[in-house]
Amino acid sequence: MKRIILLSIVTVSLVSCNANFTAALTGQEQAAPVSYPAFSDETEVTINGHTLDAMEPFIAKDGSYLFYNSLNDGNDTSLYYAAAVNETTFTCMGKISNVNGTVPHLDGVASMDMQHNFYFVSTRNYPTVMENYLTATWSNGAVGAVTSVTGNFYIYTPGWLIMDAEINAAGNLLYYCNARFSGRAAPDEARLGIAAKNGASFNKISSSDYLLRNINDTSYIVYAPSISSDGKELFFTRMRLGTYDSEICVSIRSTTDDRFSTPKKLDIPAATGEFLEAPTLTGDGGRLYYHRKKISGDGKYHIFTMKRKR
After folding, report:
1. Which of 99, 100, 196, 258 falls 20 to 30 Å from 120 in CA-CA distance?
2. What is the pLDDT of residue 4?
3. DSSP string of 195-264?
4. Is the backbone peptide bond immediately before 187 cis, with ω within 30 degrees of 0?
5. What whole-number distance in Å separates Cα of residue 141 and Cα of residue 66?
6. Strands 46-48 vs 89-95: parallel, antiparallel or unpaired
7. Of 25, 37, 19, whose CA–CA distance to 253 is shortest?
8. Residue 110 has what pLDDT?
9. Is 217 exposed, middle or buried (CB count within 10 Å of its CB: 0-12, 13-18, 19+)?
10. What SS3 class is residue 57?
11. Rounded to 5 degrees, what angle do the CA atoms 119, 161, 137 make?
12. Count of Cβ atoms closer than 10 Å to residue 108 Cβ
């Protein structure tokens, strides 16, 4: 749920515990891995049967399904799923049952762990209900009963909400984005956090700020996190304050106790206004998916993929 997505909803809204964690808090920089990952051979993803905008992709860890949402304008932003034909071609299976609200609504930014616990962002009850991150169990194109994710990772002030989040493969860590909107087209600020599962809730870990110190640069709006299966690569989108020039970056670490490194921008050629955003990594780390706007084409958002250089 990026940039302009929440403008109308948040504008209306403004009017009307730490979990145990073993990271060493030394206060010193951790050694970075030998090299950053690199990707090549950009290919537009074909989604047979889908003609609308396709945004905020999430690839299931086994590669079987691609989840995404339609244009995130908050009017009829709905979650869809598509079955894999191969790594670059999918067949749209339609809207996910029991997950999308009634017009006007925004339901998007899906993610799912290996146990088929499904998560997504919604503004259906915001700000009456500030917990705008929801969960349900996924099964064959539908989800069961939808409930709010509880925990202390929310900021309970009008204008603040969870803009993006991704559950890790194991289902025990949530990488999320707190964003503050005041009526402008983009958030005034946005930063990442890490929360650990504690029963049915997720609570921000005590080392979250430390681990993400190199990523949460206050000169940028930082959002759309995606974590590798081994927890050593964190992909995300950032946009310098006062601009709409987005870039997809990656930070790395040698072990899951280490702080994430200084970010590196991925080499993805893009023209101004194409809005490279929303990375998602396959379970084996071999492919990265993301969306971009085809300003020289139909003007819609499409999903693209690149393969890892070995």
Report:
1. 258
2. 43
3. EEEETTEEEE-TTHHHHTTTT--TTEEEEEEEE-TTS-EEEEEEEETT---EEEEEEE-SSTTSPP---E
4. no
5. 11
6. parallel
7. 37
8. 99
9. middle
10. strand
11. 10
12. 28
Q: Position of tokens 């088929």? A: 116
**Is residue 5 packed enough to be buried (19+ CB in 10 Å), middle (13-18) or exposed (0-12)?**
buried
Q: Tell me: cis bond preceding 104? Omega within 30 of 0 counts.
A: yes
pLDDT at 1: 58
Q: Which residues pair with 281 in a beta bridge?
A: 288
Q: What is the CA radius of gyration of the chain?
A: 18
Give residue-wise pLDDT tens across range 54-75: 999 999 999 999 999 999 999 9
Separation of alpha carbons 9 and 126, rounded Å: 8
Answer whether 117's CB lies under 8 Å from 171's CB. Answer: yes
Tokens at residue 122, please? 């919604």
- Give the integer Cα–Cα distance in Å for 123 and 162: 10
* pLDDT at site 2: 52
Tens of pLDDT, residue by residue over 215-246, are: 999 999 999 999 999 999 999 999 999 898 99
- Using CA atoms, how far residue 305 sits from 42, 61, 240, in Å, is 6, 15, 24
Q: Which domains does the chain have, with CATH numbers?
A: 3-308 (2.120.10.30)
CA 126 to chain CA centroid, Å, is: 19
pLDDT digits (tens, 9 = 90+) for 164-175: 999 999 999 999
DSSP-based three-state secondary structure for 43? strand
Q: Are 29 and 259 in contact (CB under 8 A)?
A: yes
Task: Report CA-CA distances (Å) from 297 to 56, 82, 279.
Answer: 19, 23, 21
Q: Three-class SS string for 142-200?
A: EECCCEECEECCCCCCCCEEEEEEEECCCCCEEEEEEEECCCCCCCCEEEEEEEEEECC
User: Residue 135 has which token pair?
Assistant: 């969960």
